[in-house]
Amino acid sequence: MVLLVVMGVSGSGKTTVGSRLAAKLGWKFYDADDYHPRENRKKMSEGIPLTDEDRIPWLCALHDILRREDASRQDAILACSALKKMYRHVLISGASATESNQPQQPGENPALKILFVHLDGPKDIIAGRLEKRRGHFMPPELLKSQFDTLEPPSAPENFITVSLEKSLPEIVLEIERAILRGEALLE
After folding, report:
1. Is 165:121 a contact under the CB 8 Å cutoff?
2. In angstroms, rounded to a whole number, what is the distance separating the alpha carbons of residues 19 and 13?
3. Is the pTM here over 0.70, yes or no?
4. 163 near 156, Cβ under 8 Å?
5. Where is 111: in which H helix or E strand?
């Protein structure tokens, strides 16, 4: 059973890559953008970057979705910006990740095992994609704030980085190969 989060800044291709991979593998797919509260969407559409306080309840709701899929042993892919290490920790551990660094209590749900796939690429390519995108609440003007917020994953996080300069089929294949190589580690 695999839980995978396709992450990166707005315009990096999270939804396109995640949905294509899910369709190919027959897995469930969730787009985190679909779960933003109305207030978050409004702020972003007005060009106002979200704060940690805006994001934490949204990330906790996404953790709950992943926890449900984990409990039902369902492979799932979530497209989510997950820009900061703390945000990824909330996806893994839920609301307890926002509390002080206290050890896990007996009976608490263990941390989820998630493979993060960071779609990485040059700002100019991503900006060009955002300029072409229509009907999305995230304006291109917020791209700089996304890059400013981004904390690329690093050890000991469970992640791979994939260049978004590759073609969509190449990106999907690279992720598929990583899943096959590491699936036993994620069980």
Report:
1. yes
2. 10
3. yes
4. no
5. none
How buried is residue 86: exposed, middle or buried, by Cβ count under 10 Å (0-12/13-18/19+)?
A: middle
Q: Which backbone phi and psi does 26 adopt, to 5 degrees?
A: 75, 30
Q: Which range, 46-55, 75-84, 144-153, has the best average confidence (pLDDT)?
A: 75-84
- Could you give the CA distance from residue 72 to residue 15 in angstroms, rounded to a whole number? 23
Angle of helix 38-45 relative to helix 52-71, nearest 10 degrees, comes to 130
Distance CA 160, CA 183 (A): 13
Report helix, strand or coil for 29. strand
Q: CA–CA separation, 163 vs 8, rounded Å?
A: 11
Ordered strands of the 159-163 beta sheet: 28-31, 76-79, 3-7, 114-120, 159-163
- Which among 33, 26, 37, 2 has a CA at the least distance from the CA of 117? 2
Tell whether the model's pLDDT for residue 88 goes beyond 70: yes
Report DSSP state, residue 125: H
